[in-house]
Records
---
Amino acid sequence: VLLSVPPDAGDAVRQLCGAHGARATQIGTASGSPLAIAVGAEQVLTVGVDALREPYETAIPEAMGEAVAAV
């Protein structure tokens, strides 16, 4: 599960997960555009946030066989 929380909530999330036997690990931070993903020191993906809007808004309805209006 990927979770996005405000920067000051990380400790609380880790404590909550720990209390329920789950593990939580911070893997990065999010800010602005573009979305950039790095593995170690290697940047593996850079994409404008605007380009992610349609997949974000249509993936679940399409998977459920629902018609999706133009985004």
---
Amino acid sequence: VGSEMCKETDRERVGKIEQYIRQNLSEFEQKVVNLYVDGMNYQQIAKELEKTPKSIDNALQRIKKKLMAFW
């Protein structure tokens, strides 16, 4: 029973993080973070989104700052 409660807590945390991301990240930042979490590197993301690697780096820096505010 204890582990089931932990799993529910984990699901709740993930839900809160996802909600925070939807509410606080721009559409572009959401695309970048999804591709990054899927394992793409800056160059791959840049090519996929037709942006420069520097714009991807800038977006990830903004995302990290916004997520740090969540914690």
